[in-house]
Amino acid sequence: MSTTAPRPAERRSLGDRWHEAPRVLKVLVWALVALFFFALPLINPPLLSTPDSDFGSVLFTVAGYGLVALGLNIVLGYAGLLDLGYVGFYAVGAYTVGVFGSLHGDLPWPILVILAVTVSTASGLLLGAPTLRVRGDYLAIVTLGFGEIIRLVALNSEFLNQARGIQDIPRPPSLELFELPTLSWDGAVATVDLNDTSVFAKFGLLDGVPYYWLALVFIILILVGDTLLQNSRVGRAWEATREDEEAAELNGVPTFRYKLLAFAMGAFIGGLSGALFASRQGSINPETFIINLSMLFLAAVVVGGQGNRWGALAGAVVVGYLPERFREVADFRVLVFGLLLLLLANFRPQGLLPPRRARRARKATQQLQHLEGTEGGARA
Amino acid sequence: MVGAVYGLFALGYTLVYGVLRLINFAHSEVFMWGSFAAVWCMTAFGARAGMGVVPAIGLLLAALVAAMLVSGGVALLVERVAYRRLREKNSPPLVALISAIGASFVLSELMGLRDRVAGWLNLSGPLAPYIDRAREYTQFTNPLANVEIVNLGGFSVRSNQVIVLVAALLMMLALDQFVRRSRLGRGVRAVSQDPEAAALMGVNQKRVIQLTFLIGGLMAGAAALLYMIHIGVTRFNIGFILGIKAFTAAVLGGIGNIRGALLGGLVLGLAENYGSQLFGSAWKDVVAFALLVVVLLFRPTGLLGESLGKARA
C-alpha cells in the first residue's frame, strides 16, 4: 500500500532520517559506538572514571546490570509481565556454575555457561507454566516468593553449602594475546600509562576489564537478537498480549505460549548474567542474592523506560554506575531509589527513555488520518 | 499464635485490594512503623519488666494506641503520596505497584537511617534512646510477665499467647461488624462492588479509599504491637518478609474477604508451625511461600472466595 506519499513540508525527525540513511553509514556508526564502549576502560576518561574503585570492575558491574535489564525488559517491557523475583534466575545461573564448576564437579567454563543458561531457562519454564495462568498482580507475588525461595533453599540446603556459599568458581579460559596500555589523565592532558596495562583476555582476579569486554560481547549479541525478535511475529504477539490480552487471544494469538516464551527468554538472560557474575566474583553465597537485587533490576528497567532496550541499558547505567561514582551517597542509595521510583511513577510513568511507537503503528495512524481526511473532504 | 498477627496484618492488603484492586506493597512498612511506635512508647514511659500488673496493662494499651495511630498515619500518607495522584490520572496498575514499591523503600530506609535523619534535624541528642543502632534489631520491653496460665499435658499456654489471640479476635470482630453494619462500612462494600454505581449513589469514593487505608493501617498497628509482644524484636527491614506472609494469608483466605484474612492467617500460622516441625525451623519461610504458590495454582480465589462486596449486611 503506497497510498500515502510523505508530505514534503513535513519535518522529519532525526529517527526517520537515521532510518533512511544508507546501510554502510549505519553499520559504520554502530561499529564506532561499539568500539568506544570497548575502549572505555582503557581511555579511563577523567569525569566518568570512578576515583574510589577500579573503573574496569565498575564497568563490568554496569554491564552485568545491563544484561539483566535487557532480559527483564523482555519479560516486563515487551510482554508486560511483572516479575519481582528476577534475582531467582540470576541466582540459579550463578549457582549452576558454582555447583558444577567447583562444589560438585569441575566442568570446563564454556560448558558451565551453557549448562547455567539451560538450567535457568528450564526453571523459568517450570515456574512460568503454572503461574502465567494466574492474574497479573498475583504473578508479581508468586515471582517474589520464587526469588525468596531460591535464596532460602541455597541458604538451607546442605548440597548447596548453606551460608558458606561456593568458592573457587572457575574463570573463563584466558587467552593472553597482547597487552593494552591505559591512559592516565592529568587534568585534560592524557598520557599513556605503560605500567597500568590490561592483558587482552586474561581473566584474572584483579583486572575487571576482560570481564567487561566479555559482558559487552554478550550485550551486543543479545541486542541484535532482541531487535530481530521484537520486529518479528513474536514481538508483535508480545505487544498485542501486553496491550490487551483478551483481544490478542481473540485475534488468534496464543497468548499463554508467548508469555511463557518471554518468561523463558528472560530466565535465559538472567541465568547468563548470573553465570558471568559468578565467574567474575569467584565466590558466591546466598546473601549475594537478596530480594533487593530484584528491586534494583526492576528499577533499572522502569527508570530507563520499559519496553525500550536502550532505556533498559540507560537504567542499568543509572542503577549500577551512579552509586559507584558517587560513593558518598552509597548509604542512602536505597532511599534515593525509593524516592526516584516514587517520583518517576507519579510524574513520568513511562520512564526516562520511553519506547518509541513502532514505525508500523505510526504509519497506520498516519494512514488512518489520511483516509479520514480524504473522506471528510469528499463529503464536504 | 503468630497466625493471628498475620490475620490482622493481612486485613490491610485485603481491604485495599477489595476497594482498589491493587496490592498495597507499602503496607509492610506501615506494619514496621507500628512496631517501632510500640517500642518507642515503652521507651518513652520507661517500661521495665516486673512492674505492677495495672500500670503494665496501661502501658500496653498506650502502646496499642501509639502503634495504631502511627500505622494509621503512615497508611494515610502512603495513600496520599503513592496512590492518589496515580488514581486521578487513571494509571495502569503496574505503575501504582512501582510507586508503592518506591514508597516502601523510602519508608523502610527512613527507619533504617533514622540516626542520620535525626542528625540533619539537629535532634540527635534528645532522641538518642530512640535512634540508637538504627540498622540493628531493636528490643521491645514487655512490662507484663509472660506467665504460664494452664498446662495441658505438657503443652503450656502462656499469657502472651492468650493476649495475642484474644486481642486479634476482638479486633477482627470489631472490624467485621464495622464493615457489615456501619454506614461507612456500607460505603466500603459498595465501592468494592462497583465503584461507578457507588459514586452515582452518592458514596464519596475518595473518602472511602482513605478510610480503607486508615483501617488497614490501624489494624496493622495493632498487629505490630501483638507481634512485638509475641516476638519481641523489630528492625527496619522486617516488613518485607512479614508482608509477604500477610499477603499470603490474605490470598489464602480469599483476597478481599475480611473473615478470610483471619482464617488465612491462622492456617498459615499453623502450616508454618507444622512445617518447621517437619522440615526444621530454617525451612519455615519456604513453607509459607510454597503454600502461597500452591494456593494460587489450585484455588486462586482462596479458601472462602474473594470479594469484599459480597458480604451481606
Architecture per CATH nomenclature, i.e. the level-2 architecture of chain A: Orthogonal Bundle
Overall 3D form of chain B: globular
Mean pLDDT of chain B: 81
CATH fold-level name of chain A: ABC transporter involved in vitamin B12 uptake, BtuC
> Can you summarize the main beta sheet of chain B?
2 strands, antiparallel
Report how far the terminal alpha carbons of chain A are from each other: 26 Å
What is the element string of chain B, with H for helices and E for strands? HHHHHHEEEHHHHEHHH
Low-confidence stretches of chain A: 1-9, 376-380
The CATH first-level class of chain A comes to Mainly Alpha
Could you tell me the strand content of chain B as a percent range? under 5%
The total of beta strands of chain A comes to 2
Instruction: Name the pair of protein chains with the most residues at their interface, and give those residue counts.
Output: A-B, 40 and 46 residues
Descriptive report:
The complex is a heterodimer of chains A (380) and B (313). Chain A has helices at residues 14-20, 23-43, 55-78, 86-103, 109-131, 136-156, 209-230, 233-243, 245-250, 255-281, 291-304, 309-325, 333-347, 359-379; strands at residues 179-186, 189-199. Chain A has 380 residues and is mostly helical. Chain A has a single domain, classed as Orthogonal Bundle (ABC transporter involved in vitamin B12 uptake, BtuC). In chain A, a hairpin with a 2-residue loop joins strand 1 (179-186) and strand 2. The longest helix of chain A has 27 residues, at 255-281. The two termini of chain A are 26 Å apart. Residues 1-9 and 376-380 of chain A have low confidence and may be disordered. Chain B is mainly alpha-helical and 313 residues long. Chain B has one domain (2-142, 153-239). Helices cover 71% and strands 4% of the residues of chain B. In chain B, the strands form two sheets. Chain B has a two-stranded antiparallel ribbon. In chain B, strands 2-3 form a two-stranded antiparallel ribbon. In chain B, a hairpin with a 2-residue loop joins strand 2 (148-152) and strand 3. Chain B is globular. The mean pLDDT of chain B is 81.
